[in-house]
Amino acid sequence: MRVCSHKGFVIAVFTRDEHCPPHVHVGTNKWDARFLFSFWHNSVGLWDVTPAKNEPCVRVLEELRRVIKRRDNLRKARDTWWRSRSTLCLENMGWSSRTDEVVSTLLDQPQISKIVKGTYDAYTYKTQLYLAGHVEPLEIEL
Questions:
Q1: Among 31, 104, 124, 133, which has the highest number of CB atoms less than 10 A from its own CB?
Q2: What is the C-alpha separation between 2 and 55, in angstroms, rounded?
Q3: Are 95 and 74 in contact (CB under 8 A)?
Q4: Neighbour-count burial of 139, counting CB atoms closer than 10 A to its CB (0-12 exposed, 13-18 middle, 19+ buried)
Q5: In what side-by-side order are the strands of the sheet with 45-50?
Q6: How far apart are CA 139 and CA 127, in angstroms?
Q7: How many CB atoms lie within 10 A of CB 94?
Q8: Which of the four pLDDT bands, split at 50, 70 and 90, describes residue 17?
Q9: What pLDDT, in 10s, does the model give residues 43-85?
Q10: What are residue 101's phi and psi, to 5 degrees?
């Protein structure tokens, strides 16, 4: 599903046979770039470009990253991902109360709680993380 367009490039979340982590696709008939986004922070990053031999210049990729990161575009990407996948791709990860970030559960430290479930509310633009051992969910305003 189309998120936005920029200089002839269509930025989209694929809604069939898609997989974690949350990402959008953009490209041409010669290359496809995937950009990662999250439901707990507002950064956007380049995941990969295939085939690598046809990768566009860094300036083009950075410009696309910035377009995706715009609040309205990132919000539409999140909304589309949530509606089509119903997952934040954070289950079984950990939440560090010390650093306020998602971490590996392999880090066996007392301030890390396992993420049991996550939900996203497109209306309030908030993420709720349900943490093992906690009664109330952790709410993240995006």
A1: 31
A2: 22
A3: no
A4: exposed
A5: 2-6, 9-12, 23-27, 32-36, 45-50
A6: 6
A7: 22
A8: confident
A9: 999 999 999 999 999 999 999 999 999 999 999 999 999 999 9
A10: -150, 160
**pLDDT tens across 110-128, in order?**
789 999 999 999 999 999 9
Q: Count CB atoms within 10 A of the CB of residue 33.
A: 23
Distance of CA 56 to the CA centre of its chain: 22
Give Cα separations from 22 to 51, 104, 134, 139 (angstroms): 20, 17, 26, 19
Q: Do 34 and 47 form a contact (C-beta atoms < 8 A)? A: yes
Structural Rg of the chain based on CA atoms = 16
Contact indicator for 103, 95 with CB cutoff of 8 Å: yes
